[in-house]
Amino acid sequence: MMIKKMLLTTVFAAAATGALAQSKEVEMVHWWTSGGEAAALNVLKENLQKQGYTWKDNPIAGGGGTQAMTVLRARVTSGNIPTAVQMLGFDILDWAEQGVVADLTPVATKEGWDKVVPEALQKFSKYEDKWIAVPVNVHSTNWIWANKAVMDKIGAKPPTSWDELIAVLDKAKAAGVTALAHGGQPWQDATIFDSVVLTTGGAEFYKKSMIDLDPQALSSDTMKKVFERMAQLRGYVDPNFSGRDWNLASSMVIKGDAAMQIMGDWAKGEFVNAGKKPNEDFLCFRFPGTQGNVTFNSDQFVMFKVGPERREAQNALATATMDPNFQSAFNVVKGSAPARTDVSDAAFDACGKKAIADLKEASAKGTLMGSMAHGHANRAAVKNAMYDVISRHFNGQIPTDQAVKELATAVKSAS
Ligand code: BGC
Is the pLDDT of residue 17 over 50? Predict the structure, then answer.
């Protein structure tokens, strides 16, 4: 309550001095710093510049947005409020609970967002029936990106089960290629974990363990198998994986120095940005054993309460983001699917079309589930507790049995 009061005071103080801020300026805090991400953001930047807005870029490096969220908290606490912030899932709801985010319901009602934004996203774009975020896209994490020439050279096809995946990784290793391009950062380890949980236990187990935080599921034999498999995958990464940024791992696959990367579909943005084509230069396929299921995350723009002179820019940004043409143009470059159900897949490449179709299928089947790694399964405290155990285990600091035990206890104390 005390924190809420402090935040409200600083936000309103900022609003009062808001006249200093330019009404025609859009300042965006985000973590889209890779080549593909920057290219996608450019679509929005240019769109707003055409409408007479100046773009003030505030990129904060760090995939998954952990660092951006730390910087944001410091800024809001000191009353230095940006126009909008890129945010994920439960972080949006956390900020909404503080009472400091802007109500976008008037724009949303006028433009009929309710009818076109999928239910799974609305869960995070609305709070107490008010629109408090603008969904930009739908990404998903259970993907693999492979270099086609390397796959051809080792005589491998996209694997469809765990055992087939291991067989392909073994072939790559035997051929002297790095089998798995990976960056050892907690959010990247957790991104792999999303897929390993899903393939090992299926959709029901993913829901029970990652979303419902069922203590039995968290400490089950299936979870033990998940950690065993994580350790197995660790055997296929190169010795320099520690701390590597995700886009550098993508680049290893793009260049043919590595066979594949397990990563969300923002990785496609890197391939496309490097001039590579699906099915010619690279292959995209669902993590083996997770076909038909999707672990998703949606980037959304959250606006804070600001003075009236800055609201016009916020509304313009909201309208520009929800524009169906923008949703197509942006997501074609970003690697994600549109956040509206009424956008045609015509402009998308084969991987983009598959992403859109998979989302539809999973949503109909009830197996469209929030990504733990990207803040759509639980609040940040739980997510970070999981990150910690997953990464220490992946780095060989704790054995599997201990990881299973620690996962359950860490989640319990964080939730
Ligand atoms: C975001 C993506 C971003 C990725 C890597 C994810 O959490 O949803 O938009 O490209 O992190 O930075």
Answer: no
DSSP E strands, 160-318:
178-180, 258-262, 282-286, 294-297, 299-302
Q: Is the CB of 374 under 6 A from ligand 1?
A: yes
Q: How far apart are CA 42 and CA 333, in angstroms?
A: 10
State the Rg of the chain over Cα: 21
320-337 confidence digits (pLDDT tens): 999 999 999 999 999 999
| CA 373 / ligand 1 centre spacing (Å) | 10
- Three-state secondary structure of 22-65: CCCEEEEEECCCCHHHHHHHHHHHHHHHHCCCEEEEEECCCHHH
**Residue 266 in tokens:** 């923002």
Question: Mean pLDDT, to the nearest integer, of 298-308?
Answer: 96
Please calculate the CA angle 139-114-358 and round it to the nearest 5 degrees: 30
Q: What is the position in ligand 1's atom list of the atom closest to the CA of 63?
A: 12
From the alpha carbon of 373, which atom of ligand 1 is closest? 7
pLDDT at position 299 is 98
Q: Is 299 in the pocket of ligand 1 (CB under 6 A)?
A: yes
**Mean pLDDT of the 134-157 span:** 98
For 191-217, letters b (16+ CB in 10 Å) and e give bbbbbbbbbbbbbebbbbbbeebbeeb
Q: Is the CB of 65 under 6 A from ligand 1?
A: yes
Whether the pTM exceeds 0.90: the reply is yes
Q: How far is the CA of 34 from the centre of ligand 1 (A)?
A: 10
Residue nearest to atom 7 of ligand 1 (CA): 64
Does ligand 1 come within 6 angstroms of the Cβ of 375?
A: no
What is the 110 CA–ligand 1 centroid distance (Å)? 29
State the pLDDT at residue 23. 85
Residue where the block lists tokens 């509206």: 340
Which residues have C-beta within 8 Å of that of residue 166, sequence separation ≥ 6? 232
Mean pLDDT value across residues 366-374: 98
Atom 8 (ligand 1) nearest CA:
299
Q: Ligand 1: does its nearest atom lie under 6 Å from the Cβ of 305?
A: no
Average pLDDT (337-342) is 98
